[in-house]
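Note on ligand handling. Small-molecule inputs were canonicalized before submission; formal charges were left as drawn, and no protonation-state enumeration was performed. Where a ligand contained multiple stereocentres, the stereochemistry in the source SMILES was retained. For flavin-adenine dinucleotide, this procedure yielded the string shown in the input block below.
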Amino acid sequence: MTQHNVGMDPQEYTKLRERVFTTIWTELDPLEEEIENTEHLPLDKVMPALKDIGAFGFIVPAEYGGAGMSMSQYLPIIAEFAKIHGGIRCLVHVHNSFAHALSEIGTAEQRQAVLPGAARGDRSVAFALTEPDHGTGADLGSVATRTANGYVINGRKHLITNSQIATEFIYFAKTGPTEVSAFLVPRDSAGLHIRALPETMGCKGGEHGELTLVDVEVPHSALIGAEGAGVANLEAALEISRVFIAASSLGTSQRALELSLRHAKNRVTFGKPLEARQAIQRYLAEMAIDVQALGLMVADAGRKADRGLRIPAEASMVKQFGLEAVGRVTDRALLVHGGIGYTRKSPIERLYRDARLNWLEEGTPTIQYMVTAGQLIDGYQFSDPFAVGNDG
Ligand SMILES: Cc1cc2nc3c(=O)[nH]c(=O)nc-3n(C[C@H](O)[C@H](O)[C@H](O)COP(=O)(O)OP(=O)(O)OC[C@H]3O[C@@H](n4cnc5c(N)ncnc54)[C@H](O)[C@@H]3O)c2cc1C
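Structure output:
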């Protein structure tokens, strides 16, 4: 992104945001029990509700039929999704992140072919990087071999979210001994096989498939950017998406705090509500500190991205702080709730499990430390939080 992203007209945005929040709480939140019981997302209910509010095009540029939200406009929306069932949040997050990534790194032809359908929710782009037998980056085992007509790709990926709805995969493969390239691979390619993996600890109901590619032929036009630009593409795609994970940590933390406050008010032991106990007040205060700090960091990263700045350090720092914060907040929420919080009678049990995916999505802590330290060593300058006119 190089230009200032002003996003949607503020009045239109406010109206849409209200509609989205209403749908989240009236149509999607009630699906929690069904999803937890069946460990499947009822797509017949989820997809129409999401399509109705334009959820598949939140950050798809308006020229392709999306809402064209700025990052600052999208962040509170994905945070609100993270207050309800994590499987739904995951579906919306992955679709939007990688449709948006394609709008940034895809060729004009790829954008035109995929994004209008993606904005409507008729197509979906998934991100295929992680491999069962190799690390990521130059360690990938997937190989794309150049031929007269394009490339032949062989390899295996796993844990690929939205593999049940994806029509295209942004697929990373080696095109040289240390060179990685990204390709847009259609789901219906001959030789591409998808298998669902067993269910997950939290964010249940989504499919995180295993992809096997055997001599999959793609044309030259499937290459995203230049040959060998895969790692740069990868970083560009994951940078803002790390901020979206941090916003998800924020939403889950806000919900856990809200539920904890309510419980502390209503639960009476030894003649007093829990909220009157200093020990419980400390838990609540610690949760509030994390929510406050994380909110400000997320907003700062969003505003910088909207100004057209690259934000690798901010994105990794906020992603890391966010997962630590939501970890602490959901721990405290469990303590405030006592035993009932550990049962499915309380949403805390699910929020706790859902939040743990935030450790893994868009890179583990070791990756965030590596990116942050690398940026510092390369001379990263902190922005002045007190600068005049700096609203974030
Ligand atoms: C529900 C779910 C959905 C996912 N969705 C997607 C998706 O849509 N697309 C996708 O591509 N991936 C997806 N992933 C994969 C996820 O991004 C990875 O699991 C995560 O990045 C860790 O990679 P790994 O599993 O290969 O772990 P490993 O690489 O095996 O890492 C294990 C541990 O070792 C550390 N480690 C590994 N290598 C190094 C090193 N060189 N230096 C220091 N530490 C190291 C890691 O930080 C981690 O702590 C998903 C995962 C889950 C659980």
